[in-house]
Amino acid sequence: MARPKSDITVLKLFQVNIRLTCEEQLLLEEYSKTYGLSVVEYVRKRALNKQLPKHIISPINRELLIELSRIGNNVNQLAKRNNQNFLDKYVFNRDLKELKDILNLIKTELLK
């Protein structure tokens, strides 16, 4: 089955090219990373006066938040398996200790 055609008003049909110095490009890349956007998305939002994301996150903190999210998913999976009695208690405790160790590493990175 073919993908349904997009509405013509949603398609991005036009392209605008700009020339930047190396410094300007690096600055744009840095700004876009702090908002978690690609350079193109950042420029589009700024040019059209659209609202940027409210939370500015440094790239380091972004990586830590992603890792914390993964840990949260692991904890949920462990809890679900434990509640369904699919896990051996030894395996559960081992995995839980491993997650605690990773969390402690992240805490020390944040407090540097």
Describe the structure in your own words.
It is a single chain. The protein is mainly α and 112 residues long. The protein has 4 helices and no strands. α1 packs across α2 and α3 packs antiparallel against α4. The chain is flat, with a radius of gyration of 22 Å. The model has no long low-confidence stretch (mean pLDDT 82).
Strand content: under 5%
From the spread of the alpha carbons, the general shape counts as flat
Mean pLDDT: 82
Give the beta-strand count.
Answer: 0
What string gives the helices and strands in order? HHHH
Computed over alpha carbons, the radius of gyration is: 22 Å
Largest sheet: none
Provide a quick synopsis of the model.
This protein is mainly α and 112 residues long.
Keywords:
mainly alpha, single chain, 112 residues, flat
Task: Chart the SSEs and their pairings.
Layout: H1 22-35, H2 39-47, H3 59-83, H4 89-110
Helix pairs in contact: 1-2, 3-4
